[in-house]
Amino acid sequence: ILSIHLHRLRVFSASTGELAHELDFTLQDNGGPHETCRVTRDLLLRALEEELPAGTIRYSSKIVSIHDQDGAAKILHLADGSTLRAKVLIGCDGVNSVVAKWLGLPKPSHSGRLATRGLAHYPDGHGFQPEFLQFIGHGFRFGFVPCDGTRIYWFYTWSPSQNASADKGVDVEGAAKMKQHVLARPRSSKVPAGALEVVERSHMSDASAAPLRFRSPLSLLFASISKGNVCVAGDALHPMTPDLGQG
To answer: Which UniProt keywords apply (predicted)?
Structure first.
């Protein structure tokens, strides 16, 4: 199974354990049936690449600087020392976008929260229903969703203590302590044991942790999101927190 079609979203209170919200993904409207599924990034990239001529996509090509060439083409200097000449440059290089910086967009702001993301493996099958589960309360949001029959993607967002900066909140934990940190608040809340096991089964060396940042939509009203043959899209344009992006 390469992906699972999700049936619904269920949000529970971490304080009481009661169901707080439910959204049915299978409902149909005049536009026909909805389709909500979880696909891993490697499969998505592979599917996109197969639709393009061989060699079109160049991986591990981080841009470090951009220069004009005769006011038309752009010369992209990459981290490996090589260069690319682009007639059109569309920056989709994430929250730390070099292209957005070149355009003069304001630097993304910290939201005051951090997020840890991971992947749990169940070689014999996880047994969870095809649904997106979330638990909210006590200063955290914890959720997970099946990717297929043996893997589950999970996330945990939280606010650091008042005397710790957002960046330091990630660094002080380290990979060895991150699992206990993620489990601490949910264990003292009304989060079921089966949900906690998702984190317990994960190899934290594969998990990622970072501050959640965003760029205020109002700031874009007074900025240039394009300049000649250069523009930005996606997180490079409008980085946002998961609850705002619903992602």
So the answer is: Monooxygenase, Oxidoreductase
Count Cβ atoms below 10 Å from residue 225 Cβ, excluding itself.
17
Model confidence over 96-153: pLDDT tens digits? 999 999 999 999 999 888 999 999 999 999 999 999 999 999 999 999 999 888 999 9
- Is the CB of residue 194 less than 8 Å from the CB of residue 142? no
- Evaluate whether the domain defined by 58-108+215-245 bears CATH number 3.50.50.60: yes
pLDDT on residue 246: 45
Cβ proximity of 101 and 230 under 8 Å: no
Give me the helices (H) in 7-165, please: 41-50, 98-103
Q: What is the signed CA dihedral for 198, 9, 241, 122, rounded to 10 degrees?
A: 20
Rounded to a whole number of angstroms, the CA Rg of the chain reads 21
Q: Residue 34 to residues 27, 31, 124, 143: CA-CA distances in angstroms?
A: 7, 8, 30, 22
Task: Cite the residue boundaries of each domain of the chain with CATH code 3.50.50.60.
Answer: 58-108+215-245
| CATH 3.30.420.10 describes domain 4-39+109-213 | no
∠ Cα 29 30 34 (to 5°):
45
